[in-house]
Specification:
heterodimer; A: 340 residues; alpha+beta; Rieske Iron-sulfur Protein; 4-stranded antiparallel beta sheet; 11 strands; B: 583 residues; mainly alpha; 3-stranded mixed beta sheet; two-stranded antiparallel ribbon; 19 helices; 6% strand; globular; EC 7.1.1.8 (chain B)
């Protein structure tokens, strides 16, 4: 409550110089802390700070003890114990210092607010003039304004030089740059369908109605870059009741109700791994694109546009499932030239 | 003020330690002129407020990341070379995996304190991003980005982007199946870029996905490129803070021409220093008690398996949500047979592009439509800038709807809802939510401003009821003291831009009118709806025709009291009475 700063209101009432803004009443009064008035409280705060720093020292000692006494052993239990003991001791060591220092600052250090002047960021006119003059002098000394050809030459040289670093970098970084590889997979006519990850070939008779197989080409292990090939070639195989099949992507691409689709989502390439037996829907767990396996893997929901490409399959003489050919279109996410 | 450290002979009765310190200071000063820096900075004033700590959390969690990160590099092997695991974690013994994954397992199980450091590193990264975002919210809603700090806003914005990059590149390093699927999504998004998509994918992965190069490349990005840029920009960010001096919240005695607070030494040396240990300590406690990214449960990367309910780190969820919400129909094939995946381009590039661009350019847009060229060092109370606050909240709502959409599968399983319904609900909400948030926030701001006016004009309710001889009851109101009032009336009264008319006095069309008119229209969107702060004249008027008259005159003319529902307690507020009406 102050009474000394209402001059503006008085002015207003007197009818001259009506201000449309209040005036800043100035810094509020400083409120002393308990510790500023009572030496006992002050001493108590000091003891609290001491105690907090003490906790930190104990924490560090505890850490060293835990390091030697609780090594992570052969099981998850010992690992958890070691992690907890080390972490808790470290936390005490750190929080002791942190809270101690902050408490010291808040309870014991001078808490009188101070005010400091600010100055405009811009330099004053004189400085600016001097700066401009300095640049002018420099430009004159260099003679750049008189020698136009030099200006062009230095800009051209400096602009061209980064090519020497960029060329080998960009040239090598994509390896062979053969993006055509995106359109082919390891599947060929006669490649056996094998279980992932064991690599054992699958017999048509092993596949019961409603069951799902995660499939890789049998030749995967011999590939030059198995992981790269697997990333394109993985297939999901399902056996439906042949009467449930509404459509396929190609005539005769299934075998006795067994259909095989690329497992790589046509959205952004996650493995489409969740199969719902009742609805014949395949769900991608990443972005929930949903495909109807009984209807040529048509998209029924989600952000994917295209059906999962179907792998044409049949059986060989021994009853093993084999591919009739590679996929008839690129698998996985769309890219600019995928239909070229 | 401070004593410079280069005056050893002024100390009375120096202790050996004091002499050593003075000697060192003298040595350094003679070679560096350190005294000037100490004199300038030691007692520099910084204002105090809890919300200023958000940026400090970002800084200190980054230091924590550096400390724990250096530890991790000692043991991590950034290689995709194939190996077979053998070690204490039985379920993966003999499994084929990359050196990166195998060394992550060794770090977790065999290096003492290794798991702790990994968990500290990961938790600190999540907190780093969270504190950047909340710090940015503070700066946005209080208008701390205004002149002269627009450039520092851009620096901070760049730090946010670099933080995302740092987090993403680090998350992928262990080469586990979860982060591997994240990379696969990245590959899908890169391939969707028109024309150069497949080449860009080869550029990143060194050939086909996943290739052999990615982990070493990400490692270099993660431990060298991005941290170096972040460090440099943090340096610039803080340099700007020193140059501009810190902003302060409004209050009596706090002006655009001063900075009120405590000196760097000793208050902030102790407080901020202590705060570093506190932030590090809290992160250590989290790492001790909460498991994060247990890659040994996920297994090494393999292109075939994927787990349901997989989530990226929180700061990437909005991208994931954006991808999930987009209907697939947007993909099309052009004339000539080229595929344009708008179902990926829109959610993964255009939506975040819009969000981030709006964020980056907002200070410049606001400055232009406000027509304000002054420096601002006193912060805004968010309510006093209804458009800005509402705009910020609606951006945040859009962001959080995308974050939630990124967890739509978890929402579905936890609440037993149909995932298709949830996705549809979010699709609608993404458009309706921000709009609704804007309208509601703006109304709340205007309401709070009216409340401020009400308080300034009529004072606090006291609960003291007075009955007049006439039988009328009135509640006595206690006027605000000058400090309380100042907080509620100090802000600028910003009105929409006024422009020159379209034609001059002689009826000639003015050049540049159309541009001015457009600026004015935008300015009206910003400032048309407003509640102006109370002026001294209004306060005087409210006192004279209502309350003061009431208490002064009721004895004489009780019948005229009707208009004044409040009675202001005159005690201590004004020395003069309020009988005279203002001119």
């Amino acid at each position: 409550m102050s009474t000394h700063d209402n001059s503006h209101e008085l002015e207003a009432r007197d009818g001259h110089a009506v201000l449309d803004r209040f005036e800043d009443p100035g810094h509020p009064e400083h409120h002393p802390r308990l510790g500023d008035l009572d030496p006992k409280a002050n001493k108590k705060a000091e003891r609290q700070v001491l105690f907090l720093f003490g906790i930190s020292v104990l924490g560090t000692i505890g850490f060293v003890v835990a390091y030697f006494a609780l090594p992570p052993g052969e099981d998850a239990e010992s690992m958890r114990a070691s992690n907890f003991a080390l972490g808790a001791a470290l936390a005490f060591a750190l929080l002791g210092i942190g809270t101690g220092a902050i408490h010291w600052a808040k309870a014991l250090m001078n808490d009188h607010e101070k005010s400091e002047e600010r100055h405009l960021q811009a330099s004053d006119a004189e400085t600016r003039e001097a700066a401009v003059q300095a640049l002018k002098d420099g430009a004159d000394d260099s003679g750049i304004s008189r020698r136009g050809a030099l200006k062009g030459a230095v800009v051209t040289a400096v602009a061209l030089f980064p090519l020497t670093i960029a060329l080998p970098l960009v040239g090598n970084i994509g390896e062979d740059w053969n993006v055509g590889k995106l359109k082919h997979t390891l599947w060929k006519k006669g490649t056996k369908l094998a279980r992932d990850p064991s690599g054992r070939p699958i017999k048509a008779s092993d596949v019961t109605i409603g069951s799902v197989f995660h499939v890789i080409p049998e030749t995967l292990e011999d590939a030059e870059h198995p992981l790269d090939e697997k990333a394109k070639a993985v297939v999901l195989l399902v056996r439906l009741d042949p009467r449930d099949i509404k459509s396929e992507q190609g005539e005769g691409w299934s075998y006795d109700g067994i259909v095989a689709f690329s497992k790589i989502c046509t959205h952004v390439g996650c493995p489409v791994a969740l199969y719902e037996q009742q609805t014949h829907h395949l769900l991608c767990p990443c972005h929930q694109s949903t495909f109807d396996v009984s209807d040529g893997a048509r998209v029924v929901f989600g952000p994917a546009k295209r059906p999962l490409p179907q792998l044409p399959i049949t059986v060989d003489d021994e009853g093993y499932l084999i591919a009739q050919s590679d996929f008839h279109e690129p698998v996985g996410p769309s890219f600019w030239e995928r239909e070229k | 003020m401070s004593t410079t450290t280069k005056a050893p002979n002024t100390t009375s009765a120096p202790t050996p330690l004091g002499r050593a310190a003075a000697g060192t200071a003298d040595y350094l000063d003679q070679r560096t002129g350190l005294g000037v820096a100490v004199k300038t900075f030691a007692r520099k004033i910084f204002p105090d407020h809890w919300s200023f700590l958000l940026g400090e959390i970002a800084l200190f969690s980054f230091v924590t990341i550096l400390i724990s990160g250096v530890f991790l590099t000692m043991f991590f092997v950034p290689s995709m070379a194939e190996t077979h695991y053998s070690g204490p974690w039985d379920s993966l013994n003999g499994v084929e995996m990359s050196e990166a994954f195998s060394s992550t397992l060794r770090l977790s199980f065999e290096v003492r304190g290794g798991l702790l450091m990994r968990q500290i590193h990961h938790w600190a990264a999540l907190i780093f991003m969270a504190s950047i975002v909340t710090h940015m919210m503070r700066v946005f809603f209080t208008g701390a980005f205004r002149k002269p700090r627009e450039l520092n806003w851009v620096v901070g914005f760049t730090l946010l982007i670099l933080g995302l990059l740092a987090g993403f590149s680090g998350y992928s390093l262990p080469d586990d199946v979860l982060s591997g699927n994240g990379l696969r999504i990245t590959d899908g998004v890169i391939k969707a870029v028109p024309i150069i998509g497949s080449y860009a994918s080869y550029f990143v992965f060194g050939g086909e996905f996943p290739g052999q190069d990615l982990i070493p490349r990400l490692f270099t990005v993660h431990v060298l490129l991005v941290p170096a840029l972040i460090l440099a920009l943090i340096g610039l960010h803080l340099l700007f803070v020193v140059l501009h001096k810190h902003t302060q919240y409004p209050g009596s005695g706090r002006k655009d021409t001063n900075v009120v607070g405590f000196p760097l030494f000793p208050i902030y040396v102790a407080k901020a220093g202590g705060y570093f240990f506190t932030v590090f300590g809290v992160i250590a406690l989290m790492a001790a008690t909460m498991s994060i990214n247990p890659v040994w449960n996920y297994g090494p990367y393999d292109p075939s398996p994927v787990s349901a309910g997989a989530q990226p780190d929180w700061y990437m969820l909005f991208l994931e949500g954006s991808l999930r919400l987009m209907p697939g129909g947007a993909e099309f094939v052009t004339w000539g047979g080229y595929t344009v995946s708008l179902n990926v381009i829109i959610p993964a590039m255009i939506v975040p592009g819009i969000l981030f661009t709006l964020l980056a350019i907002y200070p410049f847009v606001e400055a232009a439509v406000t027509g304000d060229k002054r420096e601002h060092h006193v912060l805004d109370r968010p309510r006093n800038r209804p458009f800005r606050t509402a705009f910020g909240v609606s951006l945040l709502v859009a962001f959080f709807i995308l974050v939630l959409a990124g967890s739509n599968d978890l929402i579905a399983t936890h609440f037993h809802l149909s995932i298709n319904d949830i996705t549809w609900a979010f699709r609608v909400l993404l458009f309706v939510g921000p709009w609704l948030a804007f309208v509601i926030t703006k109304r709340i701001c205007l309401g709070l401003q009216r409340k401020d006016r009400e308080l300034v004009l009529h004072g606090h309710e006291t609960g003291r009821i007075v009955r007049f001889a006439s039988g009328e009851y009135i509640e006595v109101h206690k006027p605000l003291d000058a400090h309380e009032r100042w907080l509620r009336v100090q802000h600028d009264n910003i009105r929409p831009l006024e422009i020159e008319p379209a034609e001059d006095a002689r009826g000639v069309r003015r050049k540049g009118y159309q541009l001015d008119r457009m600026r004015q229209r935008i300015s009206q969107v910003f400032y048309e709806d407003r509640v102006e702060p109370v002026t001294p004249a209004e306060l005087a008027a409210s006192h004279s025709h209502g309350e003061h008259d009431a208490i002064e005159s009721h004895a004489a003319e009780p019948a005229q009291v009707g208009g004044g529902h409040h009675l202001v307690e005159p005690e201590g507020e004004t020395t003069a009475d309020g009988r005279n009406s203002p001119a």
